Amino acid sequence: MTRSEKDKMLAGELYRPEGPEILADVARTAEWLARYNAPGVMDPAARHALLRAFLAEAGPDTVVRPPFYCDLGYNIRLGRNVFLNYNCTILDIMPVEIGDFTLIGPGVQILAADHPRDPAQRRALLEFGRPVRIGANCWIGAGALVLPGVTVGDDAIIGAGSVVTRDVPPGATVAGNPARPVRRTAPAG
């Protein structure tokens, strides 16, 4: 039995993004994003209800300021009291989990989507993904990039404009391109 491109994508294997199920999901996401990002004032409770109805999880008191962008939505889990500022992008072809009380600055990109290193596979338009996990009580500064497969530990801080290519230990502060440790902070009690 042949597996669908969506099944391959969700398993983290090489897949072709033009699979019909994937294209249908992307179209559904585009419609939702148009509603979520529509100009005008929306009641915070109504906006949160949209998040809860569309994402895999959006915990209580979570705020995602529009505009917001994602691939699919159903692979995004946001804990309680998570805050994403304006213009954040999450490429969620694989699970992206963000823990309770994490603050994410404007223009942050969290990318679970990746491309093969082999040029023949790229020419064949293959892609794959790796999950991203961001712990609780983290702070990610404006314009930072969190790359595929990265885990950010609880209480970590990522400096503005950083490119996070490797896991960040709990309580660490990292900054730069690529992000490197600056100092460790005591975990919240």
Automatic annotation (TrEMBL):
Gene3D superfamilies according to UniProt: Hexapeptide repeat proteins
Entry-linked SUPFAM superfamilies: Trimeric LpxA-like enzymes
Source domain of life: Bacteria
The keyword Protein biosynthesis is assigned to this record: no
The keyword Acyltransferase is assigned to this record: yes
Sequence ranges assigned to domain Maltose/galactoside acetyltransferase in this UniProt record: 6-60
UniProtKB keywords: Acyltransferase, Repeat, Transferase
InterPro entries named among the record's database cross-references: Hexapep, Hexapep_transf_CS, Hexapeptide_acetyltransf, Mac_dom, Trimer_LpxA-like_sf
Family the entry assigns: Belongs to the transferase hexapeptide repeat family.
Protein name: Maltose O-acetyltransferase
Native source species: Methylobacterium isbiliense
